[in-house]
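pinned: reference chain
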Amino acid sequence: MSTHLPPERQSINANPTPSAGRRNFLKVAVAGMATLAMVAALAVPAVAQDMSNGAANFYTSDKVIMQKVTFKNQYQMKVTGNLFTPKKLDRNLKNAAIIVGHPMGAVKEQSANLYATKMAERGFVTLSLDLSFWGESEGQPRNAVSPEIYSEDYSAAVDYLGTQSFVDRQRIGVLGICGSGSFVISAAKIDPRMKAIATVSMYDMGAANRNTLNHSQTLEQRKQIIAEAAEQRYVEFTGGETKYTSGTVHELNKDTHPIQREFFDFYRTQRGEYTPKGSSRKLTTHPTLTSNVKFMNFYPFNDIETISPRPMLFITGDAAHSREFSEEAYKLAAEPKELVIVPGAGHVDLYDRVNLIPFDKLTSFFSTHLK
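pinned: its structure tokens
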């Protein structure tokens, strides 16, 4: 993700240093995840920029045309995306399309463009997008968290694709990576135009913030985070400096948690680092502290069974620290559903390691259900 892990939680303003309350939270959260961390560490590179297993976040294809597009969501906020079409696409026909969402705290240039390009090579019209408040999409303050608006962005993307002459509005699917996995589920529950739903390395951003991994956060710790964010609202309301939280650390030391190292290798090295225009490296991946608590009220898996009979596909790695979320969603979803566990893959591996990402499975899933 970028911005979703308990070990990453920190408050940053001029100096990215955790507050006292967050330091205590970190100690407990990390201790609570010790077992998971040991598993995750097996898939975490020892040094930065591990390009193994075909890491290709910035992959481009001479078989695909990419075009920047913009459209408005229901709140009249401009959403920016990249439209990918196969060069051999017959625009006189109505074609299947897939919307691809980036990890939480990331932008479309991180993982989403890669998936969109690869699926366009396989014959689909694809659209990667920047969620509102991130990347090139509108929304103030920047890096704000609004799960409802994030989900709306996917419905707005369906609006856009469904009004293109070369797209069959009855054959539009969605694919959410990491945090966007929970956003596309939230969107699909109230938008039946999304005919097939897939997630990769999904994070339930609500549960991740309420409970952290392996349910290692206590209610008191949760309340402490909420109280800190609430007090910060006074500071910002009266013109004080904006605080940011979560996200990926900016340097490693001997005490850096293995999961943070996994994210660092993607977000803080040339493997996947990307700073959108108008932002700064210091702020990438970090949501605002006061808005991040809105995830506490986000329950994407509630009523997930109502998506049926539309099909759902959940993809996770066998060494992914986020595996619990895909397994929980699969358990709660109704048929037709499928859970694919990729051998040897960690959470971030499935962002960009093309030798591990099951593109054949994604192709068969969308080809079967968007026909």
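why pinned: The radius of gyration is 19 Å. The beta strands are 64-72, 78-86, 95-101, 125-129, 167-177, 196-200, 312-317, 337-342.
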